[in-house]
Amino acid sequence: LRGHTATVRCARVLHNRPIAVTGSRDSTLRVWNIQKGVMLRVLHGHTASVRCLDICGTRSSVVQCAYDFDELQIWDVDTGECIRFLRGHSHQIYSIAIAGNLVASGGMDTIVRVWDATTG
Length: 120
Prior knowledge:
Helices cover 0% and strands 57% of the residues. The protein is built from no helices and 11 strands. It is globular, with a radius of gyration of 13 Å.
């Protein structure tokens, strides 16, 4: 799968779907159909490297963070729309873990925050 213009930092595959999402130092997320080997869309929301991403349950949502913000963004990978921001960290976020609708994030502010992805 070719399309990113810089190092690919993270990748996830949606549960029971032939869809992968990748994040890169080129500041984009890219959505791929891995059966057909084609890029479906590019998600632009940052100006710095995408650090990490994870999939929200079995839905078509992906949560990601990048070096330029102290917030998480939740994207609908089917529409390419950013559907929610999760704000609360005071510095860059370096890790994300998801279980169902719960999103845990941690970063340079030494705090772990837990969010409900459906309500923020």
